[in-house]
Amino acid sequence: MVQEELFKKLIAHCKEYGFIFPSSEIYDGLSAVYDYGQNGVELKNNIKRYWWDSMVKLNENIVGLDSAIFMHPEIWKASGHVGAFNDPLIDNKDSKKRYRADVLIEDHMAKIEDKIEKEVEKARKRFGETFDEAMFRQTNPRVVENLEKIEDIRKRMVQTLESGDLEGVRQLIVDLEIVCPVSGSRNWTEVRQFNLMFETKVGSVSEDANTIYLRPETAQGIFVNFLNVQKTGRMKLPFGIAQIGKAFRNEIVARQFIFRMREFEQMEMQFFLRPGEEMKWYEYWKEARLRWHKALGTNPAKYRYHNHDKLAHYANAACDIEFEFPFGFKEVEGIHSRTDFDLSNHTKFSGKKLQYFDPETNENYIPFVVETSIGVDRMFLLIMASAYTEEKVDDGERIVLRIPPALAPVKVAVFPLIKKDGLPELARTILNDIKLDFNCHYDEKDTIGKRYRRHDAIGTPYCITVDHQSLEDGMVTIRDRDTMVQERIPIDRIRAIVEEKVSYRKLFEQL
Q1: Any binding-site annotation on 265?
Q2: Domains of the chain
Q3: Is residue 432 annotated as involved in ligand binding?
Q4: 374 is known to lie in a ligand binding site
Q5: Could you read off the pLDDT of 411-422 as tens digits, one per residue?
Q6: Is 268 annotated as a binding residue?
Q7: Is 373 annotated in some ligand binding site?
Q8: Fewest beta carbons within 10 Å, which of 43, 332, 366, 506?
Q9: 371 carries a ligand binding annotation
Q10: 376 in a labelled binding site
Q11: Is 249 labelled a binding residue?
């Protein structure tokens, strides 16, 4: 199945099975805004729990916070968002479509990278087990030439973007002969900067109201509460503050389903540390965060690090953990060494000293920060894209979501074989017992086969069937989602078997 077709099927599956709906659909929807359905909200909450517990419960020196969405407008001046939170946009005059200029250039580089990978794959098939990929990449003329092209493009892009040379950015697009994906033409406008923050008013009378912003990130709520948390929690460096919350960006080029939205949710942790130790902790959190992803059992070959060519104004090092989505490798999490930029600027703009007294060195200083930031919605899409499987089985085909059991929306479904003879009553008794521990479903409609297929499609790890023999011997049939193997087990063992499969403990032990 081609990746574009897979992505379309995944989007349709999300709607059909109650994971994600277009927002305001009965009013023809709202672009780049989505609602999470009954199964989607469960999966989303489970992702957040996995992240939160791995950060706050497993680390003695990391605590949580929930800061407000509305914040004093000076905060966004101090953070640089008012002056520097812009995207370089370019329009195609023929299609009337608008694009991020840097994304057009990055997509062009990705096409060259695809050419390199095709050359490598051809050579691998040709030479077999004797193939030395590293040597091939260093010596093959076509690969070397394309690598040099990518590096030249990257240098020009970084130079023009960092210097604010918008005409230079446009000229690079022209020189590379990049065409509009819709019209196929190269009829481009000039490049313009567009600020991504949403503005609103606070106040009882419109003419006296003050302009404030919907927060474009959750990090600043952590920084302005640094001293509150440090003092009340008696925290010693190094320590972290974690937060999950909504953020808002007026994305002009919102695309790829829930990958880029105007309202989204972030899971961020700011780790405060001594100046000079930032690179040690930067490398630590890079490795720790990748372990967190791989513990879920997703294909490790689909992850990679991508070091930033153009650093943000606050960073001295930054990289992304990228995942190979159906539309290519894209960022799912960022790790950034933010230096002391944020606390220093908030000290300057607020007039309050955001310093830490170090009892070991007997001095006051502004801590440095290493940040980990992951999008809940992107992580949701990663899980769904990894889980969606179409496979042939004895009675035809089935669609199954191989969601990591700990994250599955429904952990166990309970079925009576038929709707009479006391089977529904026993099934309900079992359900009422185990629902105290797990999110469960009861289903008595249609054949057992159809009920299995429904729960395969939402990723339920186990299905329990109550039959007439269950009334006599206290045994039920348990079916595994992934293997479809069925076995008879005592009713009093259901909880232990399900717990072993769906517990977060197995994930946490790998961290």
Answers
A1: yes
A2: 3-74+209-384 (3.30.930.10), 86-195 (3.30.40.230), 399-509 (3.40.50.800)
A3: no
A4: yes
A5: 999 999 998 999
A6: yes
A7: yes
A8: 506
A9: yes
A10: yes
A11: yes
